[in-house]
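notes to self, project folder thing:

trying the whole complex as one job this time. last attempt i did each chain seperately and stitching them together was a nightmare. two parts in total, labels are on each line so i dont mix them up again. if this works i'll redo the older ones the same way
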Amino acid sequence: MASRLVALLLVVVGLTWFTLFDERVDEGSTPTMWAVGDLLGGSEDGFARVNGPAPFTFPRDHGPHPGYRHEWWYLTGNLDGADGRRFGFQLTFFRFGLVPPAPSAEGASAWRSDALYMAHFGITDVSGQRLIASERFARPVLGLAGAQAEPFAVWVEGWRLAGTPGSTFPLQLEAATDAAALTLTLQSDKPEVAQGDGGTSRKGPGSGNATRYFALTRLEAQGQLRLDGRDMPVHGSAWLDREWGSSALGPGVRGWDWFGLQLDDGRDLMLYRLRRDDGRVDPFSAGSVVATDGSVTALAAGDFSIEVLDRWRTSDGIDYPSRWRLRVPGHGLDLKVAPLVADQELRLAVRYWEGAVDVSGGVRGRG
Amino acid sequence: MSALLHRSGRRHLARHPWLLALALLGITLGVAVVTAIDLASESARRAFTLGAETLTGRASHHVVAGPGGIDERLYATLRLAGHRGLVPVVEGYLQLPGQTLQLLGIDPLVEGPVGRPGGSGAGLLPLLTDPGALLLGRTTAEQHGLTPGEGFSGIAGGRVHSLRLAGWLEAADPVQARALDGLAVADIATAQELLGRQGRLSRIDVILPTTGRAAGLVRLAAALPADVRLESAGSDAVFMTEVTAAFTLNLTALSLLALLVGAFLVYNTMTFAVLQRLPQLAILRTLGVTRREIFRLVSVEALLIGAVGTVAGLLLGLVLGHGLVGLVARTFDDLYFTLTVSGLFLTPWSLAKGLLLGIGATWLAALAPALAAARVAPGALQRRSVLEAMARRLAWIAALLGLALLLVAAVLPALTDSLAAGFAALFALLLGAALLAPIAVRGLAWALHGLPLGRAGVVPRLAVSSLVATLSRTGVATAALTVAVAAAIGIGLMIDSFRLTVDRWLGQRLQADVYVSAPGALDGTLSNPLPEALLGRLAALAGVHATSSYRGATVASPSGPVNLAVVDLTRAGRAGHVLIDGDSLAVWTAFETGAVLLSEPFAHLRRLVVGDRLRLETPAGTRMFPVAGIYADFVGGSGRVLMARATWLHHWQDPAISSIGLYAVPGADVDALVTAARMAVDANVPVTVRSNRALREASLEVFDRTFRITDVLRLLALGVAFAGIFGACLMLQEERARELGMLRALGLLPGQLRALVALQTLLLGLAAGLLALPLGVALAELLTTVINRRAFGWTLALDVTAGPLLGGLLLAVGAALFAGLLAGRRAGMPPAAALRGE
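result (full assembly):
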């Protein structure tokens, strides 16, 4: 296709919350006193389990689910500046239950908390071939961090994703560091899409080894980006993943590669692949295709294939897949995916590669 | 030639191992005491600064407020407003058996704790979720026999808590490891709960990158409410260093005293060595050895002794320093701030100082003997009597010099107010007295001559006359002994006077019969104040005639933190404050209407006088408080400010009370009142209820603990003195071997000879002891009224008590007698040998 279509592709490669915390933590760059990985050493006992499909209720399910051990609000997207510059961005909020929620003891300090929040904010500057990323940690006390359904909000200190009073949409995004600041208004083009089996995404064998998972796969974004002290209007498209659960990955699973693709024909493709220790693909890998009208078709592990065409190695020797060929024969998709910037690794307390990519093939796109 | 000379010198000393040993011992002990004190105080100081650095991390500034700390909601507000680099801190104390730890509550999730202790082990999750989880330094944990995961109990905020070791604080290097000793780190929630400080932060550390720091600070300062301030980190540390400087100087001066006595021992030995070798030196001169070579010979000998003694002293100093560092830290603790010092910081400078002082003192001490040796004329077989005559002449010159020094000692303190001048006077007094000692011995001998000794027999007469005849040696020995004993007497009298003054002061100050106090009432770290309602409940108790209240608080001022004593006094309570300055009629009226009284050390330290204005930071900003008077007070080294409760409430609006005094109706049973007061207090509120007597005893116990280091120094000085006496007596007898042999040949029985020797040394000891009495009293006078006043701002009354005087005299006489008896056993050479020598 000759015309270059606006498509967004969002890829998370490597590690997300199940395995993130088992990975090495770069001591040099972590500003916190202890490896956050320590935090998931606790037991799953006492946390709620995800069992089977169930309908979502909105706006309640935009808010937090404190009974579960982990939860995230994972917003990624691509933006175009007025001068033609391209940017990727991410603002992600994670909630970690430290212990099952219990009523607070008498005389307890306000700081006593059974959960903590982590947030990552990143801007990929494509023309500058760089990624600017930072993180915040806070416990949900004294208003320092938290999440709520009505009116919707999730925040860690000054970084915030919130609805407007009286309605969840449009979403307002606010995040700033010394290096970059972003404010966006996000309007949803498609309704919430339940991923997996009726919103329940199995991650391994055994009952309860699953998450609740829905997504807003196409959000129209409009706002301001400040970079290098310069403010510029930006517009683009974003993807919000919402997921919560309590279990760890099944045995033998090493990492996971996640793709969220906004294709130029209006379809959105989500694929994730669980990589096993022995290099094979875990049978619980899955995906979905969301049509222009918002209807969703689930994909099982056998419905698609992911071929790694190239790899990228960090200076300290961590190896990430870097170019892929994705095939979904049932939907006529054969796509080549390449990152816009090779190094989009977030070297934070948790290290992972998360970045904007371009898509080419039968259907074009970018992200 | 010079090799031969040196060999002759060495052989001489080798033939007198006792002498050599004593000279070495003198210099070794002197250097050891100086080095040990220097290392110990340096270590305490370093531990303090290091501790301060560890606790503040890389913070360049602190956000601080009044005594109640900061509302934690302010922190959240600042964070949400986008202020970065803020680290909330809750601080307090945690008592474990035998050790008080600094408890540091932090938020391990915020940026900035880099530069703080790291945690290790499965730390973070339990630290955040287990209400009793703590991290300790590895050494501290091991001292208490704790391994990670283990439970233990400790006291914080006046309550006993069940705690658990969540992990070790891992240090990056050994220096940091030192700082971690005595530190307990907990999550901020845990710290608030343990200390009972829910809702409050002790401070907020500010860690900003250097670029843009100034702008960030300006923005932050603008965002703070009026009663919260932004302060530069390290201003506390600077203040504390100033406060402890005087204390450290005191210790150093006392340790130099020990070195002085050690130098006397060297002088003694070298003089003796030169006297013994006069004939030999004369022959050497005949053989063509120059004066310069003789001088060098004696100097090199002395320096060799000095070097060996100094090195041994440095080693002993290290050992001693380990023992003393705890005592020094203890005193810092009681006087200034809580401090944990686990080990010595070895600084090359401390060791170099010891080395220079040791060798320098030896060389100076050997200067006179070396010059005397160089003056020997070739071939002149100088007779001892000629030498003695010269010594007597020299004694007069020394006496004149001594008198001049005494004059300096008397005048100097009046000329300037400086502490250094006080110490200069102290040393002038000691040296002057030492120089007068030979003449004084002669005077004593004359006096004894005048006694009807004829009937006492030949031995006493011989003893007395030979004491005068051998002045060249007895004079120096007596001087050494006098200085040492006087120093011991002086320090002893000073401590006794101080203790008596404090005891008397406690008697005046503690007017109430029963005291009810909250934990931490005295150190200002009030975590569980007494409920205000308690005052009324206690006042209503049967047998209570009146009540008074006290509140300790630390507030900020432009010149550093100020300890406030907020009081609501009865008439008797007022009378308990002895005014040193101020109009006694008007002062209490002014006090009740907003003026403050300063404790004497406070006024001294901040150089404030009556009529000045004291600036304090109140919640409404900086306020001026007129100074109405200065009163005698011995609490803490940095002093206090006395403020009326009404004044406090007006400016600070903080009604918390630290302690309450109950005045019993005349004739009431105080013990019953103590019990009744205990019953009146809610069992959940941690308080101590003590009778006047018990509080007084506890206070004196603290006093004794504080001054234990001084006591130890006195003992060390005495040790050096004892070695000095002993050495001097042995030398004397050694040198008189031939004379005694003659006496044997003339028919004196061995028993008589022994008695002669013992009597002579006894006389020597007695002379030194008697001379030391007035000198000791003069020293004590200087120490109490000049040194203490200038160093700490305490006015003390000198009480001359019999104890230290008698003790000093007994020491002098006892040590001399012991040495005499020991020397007498081998007194004199066989008569034949002695005769052959003549």
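what i see at first glance: Chain A touches chain B through 32 residues (CB under 8 Å).
need to look closer tmrw
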